[in-house]
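queue> pop job 88
queue> type: inverse folding (structure -> sequence)
queue> payload:
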């Protein structure tokens, strides 16, 4: 059965329609493999996310996690909705600033910030979530050299267990991120920072994991963070003005996956915050959230052309398409499921079991196995869903494949927002050493 989320349509030619445009026309016009992002869907998701929290708390900042998709146009769409940014590298910070997001609405995260990154962050008034004691020393020193005070918070590790892929579970005590809460390290960090001249301690931050579809871990995170906020106030008399819960709200990838609505998280998290603020007489903090995947994942599809169909006497049927792990690494890296359909045959029955391979020379290069699709032929157009987050952003040039182009569609209009790489792009940075010339 064809499974489409509400922002997709089909037309009377039996084709998939995205952002008001026939997917087959998009592929013909812009070539394949092609990433397509639906602007209205991104806006809808942002508004839904923001409302989930701002309906319940007056002071809310939604900082889009650029790592999901740092394309300038995508960031621009979110900036125009009023989003802030969560960045974790110098270039993400520069993209956010270039897109017009003010420094005070940007949070800088990560466990390995360089001197240059911190200089740029401090100069732009960005909130730096400090990950370890040495970084705290470094921030204080750099701020002093710049003659500025750095706005900081601490990334704390609240030890929350999350049912997700181990590579993207980040809130466990043994993970590499943040200050340990249970042993008192986190409190110690606040104590040290309070004595430093060049830092202004304003925030607390945690991110417990990604692709979470349960409410309970977010509630546990809120309990643990707010308990620490109260302790910091009581023991050190520091008022935490920004409580940053990170990102992590997942999306349904499989037809049978349930959906976690942001309002469900909003309801529980804000309830915890209100309770602590009331009982412990805390000042009302600004609540920050850093969604990446939720905002952009299902707005994006990848269109790929079927090149070959291979049938074996005892199965399986393999089709190969022109996008593989170079264009989308999530299936190979995490065993991730991405739903696949044939965009030019959406009215036909999905009654053939098919393995979908990419063009690269390794067996791990597949996008899906044992998928139910219509009978496939050369020239069909495969559509891979929910790739707007961590799709093009994690693509590579493995086997010298140029990275795909990306097109933004909006109510019948389409424009390239990232052009396809060329041979020149691929070889531009290579040099022949003198002794080989
Ligand atoms: N904030 C911080 C500090 C993060 O580390 C992340 C993601 C986010 C926010 C956004 O999380 P989201 O809302 O997107 O779940 N490459 C993996 C995902 C890695 C996520 C890493 N951190 C994937 O393809 O599933």
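queue> result:
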């Amino acid at each position: 059965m064809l499974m489409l989320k509400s922002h997709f349509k089909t037309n009377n030619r039996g084709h998939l329609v995205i952002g008001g445009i026939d997917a087959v026309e998009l592929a013909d016009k812009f070539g394949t493999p092609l990433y397509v992002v639906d602007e209205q869907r991104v806006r809808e998701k942002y508004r839904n996310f923001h409302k989930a929290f701002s309906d319940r708390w007056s002071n809310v900042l939604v900082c889009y996690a650029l790592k999901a998709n740092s394309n300038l146009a995508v960031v621009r769409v979110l900036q125009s909705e009023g989003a802030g940014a969560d960045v974790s590298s110098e270039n993400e910070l520069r993209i956010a600033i270039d897109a017009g997001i003010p420094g005070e609405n940007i949070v800088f995260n990560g466990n390995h910030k360089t001197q240059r990154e911190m200089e740029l962050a401090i100069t732009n008034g960005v909130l730096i979530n400090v990950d370890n004691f040495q970084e705290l020393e470094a921030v204080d020193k750099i701020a002093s050299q710049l003659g500025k005070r750095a706005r900081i918070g601490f990334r704390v590790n609240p030890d929350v267990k999350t049912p997700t892929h181990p590579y993207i579970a980040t809130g466990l005590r043994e993970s590499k991120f943040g200050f340990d809460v249970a042993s008192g390290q986190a409190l110690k960090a606040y104590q040290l920072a309070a004595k430093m001249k060049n830092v202004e301690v304003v925030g607390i931050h945690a991110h417990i994991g990604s692709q979470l579809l349960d409410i309970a871990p977010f509630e546990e995170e809120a309990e643990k963070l707010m308990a620490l906020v109260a302790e910091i106030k009581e023991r050190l008399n520091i008022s935490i003005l920004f409580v940053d819960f990170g990102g992590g709200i997942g999306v349904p990838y499989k037809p049978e996956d349930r959906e976690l609505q942001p309002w469900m998280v909003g309801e529980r998290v804000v309830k915890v915050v209100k309770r602590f603020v009331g009982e412990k007489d805390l000042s009302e903090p600004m609540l920050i959230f850093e969604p990446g995947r939720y905002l952009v994942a299902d707005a994006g599809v990848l269109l790929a052309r079927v090149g070959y169909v291979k049938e074996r006497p005892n199965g399986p049927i393999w089709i190969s398409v022109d996008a593989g792990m170079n264009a989308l690494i999530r299936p190979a890296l995490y065993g991730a499921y991405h739903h696949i359909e044939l965009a030019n045959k959406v009215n036909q029955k999905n009654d053939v079991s098919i393995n979908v391979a990419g063009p690269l020379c390794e067996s791990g290069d597949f996008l899906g196995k044992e998928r139910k699709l219509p009978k496939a032929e050369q020239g069909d157009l495969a559509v891979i869903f929910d790739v707007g987050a961590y799709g093009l952003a994690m693509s590579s040039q493995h086997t010298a494949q140029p990275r795909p182009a990306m097109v933004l569609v909006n109510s019948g209009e389409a424009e390239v927002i990232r052009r396809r790489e060329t041979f020149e792009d691929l070889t531009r940075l290579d040099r022949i050493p003198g002794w080989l010339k």
